[in-house]
Each structure stands twice: as structure tokens, then as C-alpha cells.
Amino acid sequence: MTGYSSRGSLRSLLGFNFFDVFIYAFCILFAFLCFYPMWYVFIGSLSEASKFSTVSFNFLPSFPPTLKYYISIIGGGAFQRALSVSLFKTLFGAFASVVLTSMMAYAVTKVHIKGMKAINFYVIFTMFFSGGLVPTFILIRNLKLYDTIWALSLPLLMGVGNFVIMRSFFIYTIPQELEEAAAIDGANAVRMFFTIIVPISKPVIATVFLFEAVSQWNDWYTYLVYCESPELRPVVQVLRRLLTDPNAVKGNNIAILSRFGYLPPLPLKMTTIILAMLPIIIVYPFLQRYFVKGIMIGAVKG
Amino acid sequence: MGVDTAALEKVLQPHKKTKSFSAYIKKYWFYYMLVLPGFLYIFIFRYVPMYGILISFKDYKVSKGIWKSPWVGLENFTTLFKIDGFYTVLGNTVLINIYNIVFGFVFIVFLAIMLNEISSIAIKRTIQTIIYLPNFVSWVVFAGLVIIFLNPEDGPVNKLIMALGGDSIYFLIEPGYFRTILVVSNILKSAGFATIIYLSSLAGIDPGLYESAIMDGANRLQKILYITLPRLYPTIAVLLMLEIANIFGSNFEQVFNLYNPLVYDKGDVISTYLYRVGFGGELPDRAFEISTALSTIFNIISLAAMYIANRFIKKLDVIGIF
User: Fold this and answer.
1) Which of A157, B130, B168, B292 is the S-S candidate for B158 at Cβ 3.0 to 4.6 Å?
2) Last residue of a domain, one of A66, A95, A114
3) CB nearest to B42's CB, from A123, A220, A295
4) For helices B175-202 and A266-301, what crossing angle results, to 10°?
5) Predicted TM-score of the model (pTM)
6) Residues on chain B touching A251 (C-beta within 8 angstroms)
7) What is the pLDDT of residues B217-256, one digit of tens each?
């Protein structure tokens, strides 16, 4: 009661005033806008096509819900191939990234060692400047990686953002005293790294692994530019083709308009969207848990 | 059981100056080993392609390779500037980025402040969880959601319009709507990320500040304007600076998955144009070279912009930490 001016009489009456209502309504509305498209597609994937479209407003799946679209897609060879491609790409890419990045980020913090500062700059510079699309394409071709499964994940390794996050972690979160104590106990650099640093860094390593995995899973650009075989299509690429046109020429979306009639039925598209989103959703709670820590460490001092 | 004096010395004086180069390497070999794989990877996949920038100045013949292909000086650049599409693309990129800053950035700050005002922690967390999810989804998926949502026949938006008596609109092929679609979908997808940064900054505000403000007779709005918002100024400054430095940057994934030839005029941006020119067969001649010239120009501009922004941010850092 104390401290509220007379203008807040509604507040003292009801416990809230118009401003509160506005705030809640605004935020909840925005959250709804973010959420509803995904929910819409989710229930659409579980509904009979005919029943779904005719209903004016869809908030629940048609009754009874059906799994037939999921079965038809998951059972299909194209999807299964894409799934194994995506899984390999994601796991290999995330694993390689984490190993390379963590080793480098740790070593770079030892600024007293000659060259480490230069290497730090060497890495960060790539965040601002790159060769561009065509030169990288030529490189991949010259390395004989064109149209191979390696071309799907290799170009994406070691995202600089994650490098900065890990480096910040090693600088600010691992106390200097820990390493000094270990040195006094007779540990050499190798032992120190593997028996102390790595176990302590588990949260950051997990976070970076998840982030890299999500990037790899979501990426279709590498396929678009560096590959052409249908067998190498990742799940997202299968989805992309489904959404545009089965006979799509690289990147040409004109098909949407002129050939609307020949597109796969809506529920199939919805199902594929959900399937492409599934790993992200599964991993999301873990991402969320670690993310705030990561942001605090990386962004505050970035 | 003598004392190992050599080891003891090593421990007591870890940073003792070593005499020779090879002794130095021997001592710190492990750290150099740690750095080596990453160093090689970055060299091969990030630095080597930079050599390809030379293509901007050449008439690239695959058979001759980059080095031996003939020089053409600035010819590729002049050709580039003569192409009609170039200025449209440039204008679109800058304009869309400006829209994103003026509408998107402001909106997101507003959203973060609103979220901060929510008293129920449970609701606050739930909303944060919900709005952060789109950030992790691929643009292929998100664009798919947008396309389905805006579908002229059975998309919810059009159903709503028709229920209110209007005619359905095919949003995605109307040039007039396209930029709005880009900005709105970008907000929906990236709001979560920025709000988390802002909210964690706001979490550190001393509640005592609010209490003394109340005692001074401040109302809700004043509390926000004079306590909450100023707390965000450093973060806003940094993020805003980065966005402005990126004024020529373009979101390939978003635009590519949402656009179609009918909206090229309004929606084609540098990165999508670059791709179409380089790989889409739009220019029969010198496609690679022109595409490379384009990316070279903007790489350099981005680099300069980032450098300037970085200098500003460094200055702020001194001021911003109270």
C-alpha cells in the first residue's frame, strides 16, 4: 500500500492496473505469434488433410489424429538417406569443431607463450573478412571435396563465436590458482589439460557441442553450393525441395507460383517441417540450460 | 632420494626465459600442438580462399588456375556497376537493414523492457522459452512456417481475413508486402536471443533503486525511463553498433527461402544476388569473376565498418562499466 501514488488506485483495488494488463497482453501475444505457427504445423501434420483445411480456425488436430503422413515420409528411402547424412554431418561436425576449438581456445589463453596473441588475432580476423563464396567453392573443388559428404560439414567447423565463448570461459572462469597448484603438484601441461581443464570445462564443451550440432543440422547452404548428388541431401534440403518443387532447379523458386497444383499435399510438407525441427526441439531444454551461462561469459566481456 | 633440482626449478620459475628457440618449442610443445590442428584448418578453409579474391581482377580460366589467368584490372568492377540489378540489390539490402534496425531493434528493446516488468517469474520464464525457440530453427523450416501461414487458400492469416469479410491476399508474391514479411519474420525469429541478453543485464539492477524512485514519487513509466532503460544503454550501444556496421550484410538464408522472382525488385539482397550471379546462370559471362568482385567489395566495406565499430565499442567499455 505504501509508496503507490493515488493514480494507482485501481492497482490497490485489484492488485493490478491497466499498465499491467497491457504488459502481460503484449508479451503473451508476442509469445503466441512465435509459437502458433509451429503449433499450427504440428497439428496439421497429425490431421487428415481434408478435415484440416476446411476448419476455420485450427487449434487442435483433427479428430481422430493420424500418423499416416509421418509413416509415409519416415518410411521413404529419400528421408532415411537424408537422415543418415544429416546425422553424420551433425555429429562429425560438432565433434570436430569442439575438439579443434577447445584445444585452440585453451592454448590461446596462455598469452605469455610466443605467438599465442598473434594466433588469437588470426582466428578473430576471419570473423570479419573472408574470401567469399566463389573462392571457397573453388577451394572445395580443388581439394577434391566437391560432392562428397565431407563438403557438407568441413566448411562450417570452428565457428568464431564459439571460439570466443570458450576462450572467455578459460580466461574468466578457470581460476589461475588451480593451474598453479597443479603445476606445483608436478603436473605437466599435458596432464593438466586432460585431467583438470577438460573435466572442469564440461558445461562449456557441452554448450558449444550443442550449438555446433544445431548449426550443422540446420545448414543446407553447403549442400546447395558444394554438392549435387541426391544421395547427399541433408534432411533440411529434402524439406526445402518439398516446399518448393520436386523438380526444382538449384534455387529457383518460381515453381511455387506456376506449378502450385503439382506440389505435394500440405500435410506432407508440415510433417517434414516437424521432422526437420525435431532434433532441435529435443535438444532445446539442454541448450536453454547452458545458454544463459554461455551468454553471460561470452557476451559480457566479448 | 635426492631432490630433482631440474624439475623443482621448472616449477618454481615457470616463466624463466629460455635460451634458444628449440628449447622454447620443447618447453611449450604441448600448447603449440594444441593450436596446430585448428591453425591448419583455419588456414586451409579460411585464409586460402582469400587468395581467390584475385579473381575479382582477372578473367578466370579454370584450366589456367587463378595465378595464370589474365589480369583485367577493374573491368569486372565496372561491369558490375553497370548492371541494372546491382543498384536495386544494393538499395534493397540497405533499406531492409534500416527497416530491421528502426522497427526490429526498437521493438525488441521494447519487448525486453516489457518482459522485465512481468512480475510472475513463471510466466516470464515460459515466455522466454517460447520466444527463444525460433532462433534455433533453420530458416528453411521457419520460412516454411511463414509460407504455410501466409498461404492464400488455407493459411490462418487469410482465413482470419476472410472470416472478417475480406479477400484473401497472396502475400508472398506481392512486392509491397515482401519487406514487411522479412522484417516481421526476422523479429519473430531473433527476438529471443536479444531479449535474453537484455534481461540478464536488467537482472543486475539493484531493487533499492526502484524503491527510492517510488519514494520520490515516480510512476511506472518514469521508473522505466530513468532506471531500466539507462541500464541497457551499454548493451544497446554495442548491439546497435554491430547492426549498423553490418548495414551491407544480408541474410541469405532468410531471403533465399522466402523470395521468388516476382519480388526480386524489392527483396533481392546482396548475398542472394551474389549466389544467383555466381551459380544461377544469370550472367553467362564472367559470372565467377563478377560475383567475386561483388563479395570483395562488401568484404572490405564490412571489415572497415567492423573496425570502426570496434573502436567505438572499446571506447564505450571504459565508460559503460559503472
Assistant:
1) B168
2) A66
3) A123
4) 40
5) 0.82
6) 256, 275-276, 279-280
7) 888 888 888 888 888 888 888 888 888 888 888 888 899 8
